[in-house]
Amino acid sequence: MTDPHADNAGHDETDMTEMLNELRILLPGAQLLNGFLITLPFNSGFREIVEVEKWIFMATFFCSLSSLILFTAPAVQHRILRPLDNRPRFKNLASKQMLAGASFLSLASVLCAYLVTAEVVGHPLGGAVAALVTSLILTLWWAYPWWLRRQRKKDRPFKPTLADLLRD
């Protein structure tokens, strides 16, 4: 079993295996949501929804499509930039694009939960379900990992480097 407080001294910043595995989890969800949303306007009942729901649908579709674009961008960029001159820099950019994609997927999921629930059981419950989904996503995707990261930094003992020693 590995020590969760161990530092990343053995971590290879050029290895993109973890990032690719994370994308393999996120990408199918974004693709499925996009596929679902693309079909909706072509259903006969879509024309009957009220104007505000059409705007919510457009926001949902935009967020979902944006997440898909951001999740696939590293693959396209990698193909164009091959061979990579600066892997750590590329990995940093790709990580930021993934987080931006996850932000858009978060919004799309909340809006989609609202639209589906509002259509099935009404707007008040749609708002409640959207609030619940928002709470779950904010807690599990964003707040908890950031809290764990902060705890890890607090628990890590200070190990002075040669530069730190020379500064004093």
Protein model, in words:
This protein has 168 residues and is an all-alpha fold. It has a domain at 18-130. Helix content is 76%, strand content 0%. It contains five helices and no strands. It has helices at 17-39, 51-81, 87-121, 123-155, 162-167. Helix 1 (17-39) runs parallel beside helix 3 (87-121). It is flat, with a radius of gyration of 21 Å. The chain starts with 16 loop residues before the first helix and ends with a helix. Mean pLDDT is 89; it is low at 1-7.
Q: What structural keywords apply?
A:
membrane, transmembrane, DUF6328, disordered N terminus, 168 residues, flat, mainly alpha
Structural class: mainly alpha
| Rg (C-alpha, Å) | 21 Å
Kindly report the average pLDDT value. 89
**Largest β sheet strand count, sense and barrel closure:** none
Count the DSSP helices. Answer: 5
* Helical residue percent band: over 70%
- N-to-C order of helices and strands: HHHHH
**Silhouette:** flat
Low-confidence stretches: 1-7
From the N-terminal CA to the C-terminal CA, the straight-line distance is 38 Å
- Care to count the β-strands? 0
Portion in strands: under 5%
What is the fold's blueprint, element by element?
Blueprint: H1 17-39, H2 51-81, H3 87-121, H4 123-155, H5 162-167
Offer a concise description of the structure.
This protein is an all-alpha fold and 168 residues long.
